[in-house]
Amino acid sequence: MSTYDLIVIGAGPGGYVCAIRAAQLGLKVACVEGRETLGGTCLNVGCIPSKALLHASHMLHETHENFDKMGLTGAKVKVDWEKMLNYKAETVAGNTKGVEFLFKKNKIDWLKGWATIEAAGKVKVGDTVHETKNIVLATGSVPSSLPGVDVDNDTGIVVDSTGALALPKIPKSMVVIGAGVIGLELGSVYSRLGAEVTVVEYLDVITPGMDAEVQKQFQKVLTKQGLKFVLGAAVKGTSVGKGKATVTYALKKDDSEHSIEAECVLVATGRRPKVDNVGLDKLGVELTDRGFVKIDKHWATNVKGIYAIGDCVPGPMLAHKAEDEGMAVAEVIAGKHGHVNYDVIPGVIYTTPEVANVGLTEAAAKEAGHKVKIGKFPFMGNARAKAMMQADGFVKLIADAETDRVLGCHIVGPNAGEMIHEICVAMEFGASAEDVALTCHAHPTTSEAVREAALACGDGAIHV
Ligand SMILES: NC(=O)c1ccc[n+]([C@@H]2O[C@H](COP(=O)([O-])OP(=O)(O)OC[C@H]3O[C@@H](n4cnc5c(N)ncnc54)[C@H](O)[C@@H]3O)[C@@H](O)[C@H]2O)c1
């Protein structure tokens, strides 16, 4: 048994990044992970496998919809589902093995198994109790359950996001419950692979919390791609028959009850923090009323020597937010000044087109008391997007009308998830819309649309 400076519990993006940074800062570090592979939900059953399926299904969509228009003709491409799942598995394995390599490189011990905390400074894995000066909880989250809906990933009929990444076959029809990030990314995948997809959403809009114009445009584009939406509908339950499920929902406007049948139902109604298997209750670690681990601004819980980061603490459930917190808490534990700017955390939906945002929405900026100016630029005016046949969408930049300081940016369009970082950097440096507008952007790139939106905050965009 060895004594560590830090034991991190959970090797997802929050936990493994924390372990690496702490080791780089000279601490003796171990990370406990009970899965067969490192990387947590993100690498194993989240961000990474879903991106492989999104990429493959996007390629298929391009061959069917746009290849002929570009003069690429020939035999029609077909889907080999087993092969596609292998490609997904190889993508995952490459990444999880990469983390294992980084652990070895940084001399981090991987304690294989599920951890329980016996007391502050004592972490039990299997039959061994390891001593440590500090503990970081990075236990992540799991899909929330919905009353009346029994998920069974083995049969592949009513599944959560994990089951939807490994369906036994491509269903002919799919009902997605919840028009959030998971529902729309995976709904898009199966729609492109040939399923009739209907999304049932409780709210009257899709992607809750996003800028209203983005919500509208994004729904329009997805509808054009073949997805159907039933909004303002509360799902009451599912029943499973022979190879099919029936989803029952009530429309909020008149309480009328309806049902739809589908070969597969994806439940994507949010995730909840995973905090129930490490013994926090016995230690007296305080939780919030929504079940997250309560922390102060240095990620410390109320029990000395125990910190928490990532999906198990309040804030957006995003891998990159967890990574930032992982680095910051490692610095705090090493006696430095870890910091996360929660005002500049981008969000991306990896559909085609992508949707990306950072900072305040127009409504939130006004609510916060800003007089705002809006610069909007459509991708129809962007040469590169047109050449790529992806000119649906726009960039919307929000700046303070008095100071010109950039407050937020919302993009629906090609490469949105990459382009948003220009605005993240601008916001980190307190830039004005004019700063962005005066920065030379290479032509022809989709990023020119960001500059045009910034120009539209001033004397006007050029290409509209
Ligand atoms: N690309 C990414 O960044 C990415 C990808 C996947 C997941 N995530 C994160 O994972 C978390 C979970 O994602 P998610 O999409 O499951 O949750 P979400 O909270 O984004 O969306 C869930 C949706 O389900 C709806 N809903 C809830 N109960 C319902 C009911 N009974 N009937 C109909 N609709 C109902 C909600 O109104 C909401 O719109 C989120 O925090 C998300 O940010 C992020």
UniProtKB/TrEMBL annotation:
Residue span(s) of domain Pyridine nucleotide-disulphide oxidoreductase dimerisation: 345-454
Q: What is its EC number?
A: 1.8.1.4
FAD/NAD(P)-binding domain: which residues? 4-326
Catalytic reaction(s) noted: N(6)-[(R)-dihydrolipoyl]-L-lysyl-[protein] + NAD(+) = N(6)-[(R)-lipoyl]-L-lysyl-[protein] + NADH + H(+)
InterPro entries assigned to the protein according to its UniProt record, in alphabetical order = Class-I_Pyr_Nuc-Dis_Oxidored (IPR050151), FAD/NAD-bd_sf (IPR036188), FAD/NAD-binding_dom (IPR023753), FAD/NAD-linked_Rdtase_dimer_sf (IPR016156), Lipoamide_DH (IPR006258), Pyr_nuc-diS_OxRdtase (IPR001100), Pyr_nucl-diS_OxRdtase_dimer (IPR004099), Pyr_OxRdtase_I_AS (IPR012999)
Family the entry assigns: Belongs to the class-I pyridine nucleotide-disulfide oxidoreductase family.
Is the keyword Isomerase in the record?
no
**Pfam families given in the database record:** Pyr_redox_2, Pyr_redox_dim
Q: Which organism is it from?
A: Paracoccus onchidii
Q: Does the keyword Oxidoreductase apply?
A: yes
The free-text note explaining how the cofactor binds reads:
Binds 1 FAD per subunit.
Q: Which cofactor does it need?
A: FAD
Top-rank EC class of the record's enzyme = oxidoreductase
Further details from the record: The active site is a redox-active disulfide bond.
Record lineage: Bacteria, Pseudomonadati, Pseudomonadota, Alphaproteobacteria, Rhodobacterales
What GO molecular function terms would the record report?
Answer: dihydrolipoyl dehydrogenase (NADH) activity
Write the record's keywords in alphabetical order, separated by commas: Disulfide bond, FAD, Flavoprotein, NAD, Oxidoreductase, Redox-active center
- UniProt name for this protein: Dihydrolipoyl dehydrogenase
